């Protein structure tokens, strides 16, 4: 069993919630209201496979909170999806949308499956059946899914089509769609771009020169690949990057254009010319200035936190740091930009996509990126000022900002 498998994500998110609730002296009634998810759904998804046999998958949707607007959150396809982790990720979405002050609540979904072993036709059938089963509890003013691990714009297009079959053309039911069917320009790069906007602000605060920074990235999927590209554009050196099979390392920096082309051609990174291979565990402990976990949760834990050499960690992935690791990193003076801020660029452009769908108009990419920068910069500065004022970490400060907003909305709307 790996360390990540032993991690209790639900306990992790409860701990972060309690720490912030304590720091802001949130009353017990509101604590109880905000902690508990609004609704949890588990469904059985029968899928006729290409060879004719029937397989049954399990799907989840957890709707955490809708005090500030319709619930919002991705759907992931992964063999290790479980209800506890989805619950924790749904709560993270409530806090994330509040930190960046967009009018959404939080939700998350997932299907337990090995998506790499499914054909496109099987993935489509599984997706459509899942969405048809959620039909009465999702909607553009109720709960709006989005991409996450192993789901992409094509999957979002199937979701939009499946929902629209029953309700008429409804692009606002899902975000992260291809631009041709109502997606927003700039959505695919948004999480990575938003993370880099936040890093630019943090680097100024902590005297880090991004133009000279040595960067390590775990994950080269949607988020990791774009973070790598944008950091390189700023002059930073990506010295290591990985996929699920392991990583590649070159202390002089990796040529990211060539690495991305190699990955898309060979489907993996191993053997990239001029690099040494490195395991995903060792990659996290490499000598660098900025570490950007961009894959799965729980990868920085009590057994490796003390060996992290990065000065700053930007949590592009959700839940990458366990609570014990968080304390160790804080004690060691490592600056951690928490997930609910660092990766909020994705849901922010999802919000732009949804508003464009509702208004039936389309923004130019330049407008998307300009508005994204505005929101990410303002959110970082707000969180950083609360951290300074209350002498707490950026994570506790981000939770305080979020909890205050959700608590206020709950009180105003009435219980
Ligand atoms: P993705 O499926 O596009 O990419 C995931 C990457 O992680 C791939 O490179 C994969 O090879 C790698 N990976 C998988 N298992 C691994 C393992 N055991 N060790 C190391 N690497 C592994 O997913 P994504 O959309 O890039 O999401 C990555 C993370 O970012 C997730 O934690 C997700 O919740 C979070 N996130 C994504 C978005 C978004 O807009 N896509 C927004 C916010 C947060």
Q: What's the main sheet like? A: 7 strands, mixed
Oligomer: single chain
* Cα-atom radius of gyration: 20 Å
What is the tally of beta strands? 12
CATH topology of the domain at 190-342: Rossmann fold
Give the amount of beta strand, in percent.
Answer: 15-25%
Shape: globular
Order of helices and strands: HHEEEHEHEHHEHEEHEHEEHEHHHH
Bound molecules: nicotinamide-adenine-dinucleotide
Low-confidence stretches: 1-5
Q: Which CATH top level class of the domain at 190-342 fits?
A: Alpha Beta
The structural class is: alpha/beta
CATH superfamily assignment of the domain at 190-342? Answer: NAD(P)-binding Rossmann-like Domain
> In which range does the helix fraction lie?
40-55%
Q: Count up the helices.
A: 14
Biggest sheet: strand arrangement: 9-8-7-6-10-11-12
The CA-CA distance between the termini, in Å, is 43 Å
CATH level-two architecture of the domain at 190-342: 3-Layer(aba) Sandwich
Mean pLDDT: 96
Question: Can you describe this structure?
Answer:
With 415 residues, this protein is of the alpha/beta class. The protein contains 14 helices and twelve strands. The strands form two sheets. The chain has a seven-stranded mixed β-sheet with strand order 9-8-7-6-10-11-12, sandwiched between helices. It has a five-stranded mixed β-sheet with strand order 1-2-4-3-5. Helix 3 packs across helix 14, helix 6 packs across helix 12 (345-359) and helix 13 (365-390) packs across helix 14. The longest helix has 26 residues, at 365-390. The protein starts with 8 loop residues before the first helix and ends with a helix. The model is unreliable at 1-5 (pLDDT under 50). Bound molecules: nicotinamide-adenine-dinucleotide. Nicotinamide-adenine-dinucleotide is lined by residues 147-150, 191, 218-224, 242-244, 280, 294-296, 316-318, 343, 346.
């Amino acid at each position: 069993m790996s360390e990540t498998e032993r991690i209790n994500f639900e306990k992790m998110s409860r701990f972060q919630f309690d720490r912030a609730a304590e720091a802001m002296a949130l009353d017990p009634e509101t604590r109880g209201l905000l902690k508990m998810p609004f609704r949890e759904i588990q469904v059985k998804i029968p899928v006729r496979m290409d060879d004719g046999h029937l397989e049954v998958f399990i799907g989840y949707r957890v709707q955490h909170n809708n005090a500030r607007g319709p619930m919002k959150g991705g759907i992931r396809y992964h063999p290790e999806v479980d209800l506890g982790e989805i619950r924790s990720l749904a709560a993270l979405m409530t806090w994330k949308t509040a930190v960046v002050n967009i009018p959404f609540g939080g939700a998350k979904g997932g299907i337990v499956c090995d998506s790499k072993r499914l054909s496109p036709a099987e993935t489509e059938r599984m997706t459509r059946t899942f969405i048809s089963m959620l039909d009465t509890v999702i909607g553009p003013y109720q709960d709006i899914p989005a991409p996450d691990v192993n789901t992409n714009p094509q999957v979002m297009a199937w979701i939009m089509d499946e929902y629209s079959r029953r309700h008429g053309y409804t692009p606002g039911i899902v975000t992260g769609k291809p631009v041709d069917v109502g997606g927003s320009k700039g959505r695919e790069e948004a999480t990575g771009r938003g993370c880099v906007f936040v890093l630019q602000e943090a680097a100024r605060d902590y005297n880090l020169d991004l133009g000279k920074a040595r960067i390590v990235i775990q994950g080269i999927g949607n988020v990791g690949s774009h973070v790598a590209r944008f950091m390189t554009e700023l002059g930073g050196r990506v010295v290591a990057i990985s996929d699920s099979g392991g990583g590649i390392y070159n202390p002089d920096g990796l040529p990211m254009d060539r690495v991305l082309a190699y990955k898309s051609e060979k489907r993996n990174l191993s053997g990239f010319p001029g690099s040494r291979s490195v395991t995903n565990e060792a990659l996290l402990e490499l000598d660098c200035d900025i570490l950007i976990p961009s894959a799965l949760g729980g990868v920085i834990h009590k057994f490796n936190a003390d060996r992290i050499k990065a000065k700053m960690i930007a949590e592009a992935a959700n839940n990458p740091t366990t609570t014990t690791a968080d304390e160790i990193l804080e004690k060691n003076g490592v600056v951690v930009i928490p997930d609910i801020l660092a990766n909020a660029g994705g849901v922010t452009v999802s919000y732009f996509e949804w508003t464009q769908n509702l208004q039936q108009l389309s923004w130019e990419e330049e407008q998307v990126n300009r508005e994204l920068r505005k929101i990410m910069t303002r959110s970082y500065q707000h969180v950083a000022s609360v951290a300074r004022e209350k002498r707490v970490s950026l994570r506790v400060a981000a939770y305080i900002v979020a909890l205050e907003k959700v608590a206020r909305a709950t009180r105003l709307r009435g219980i």
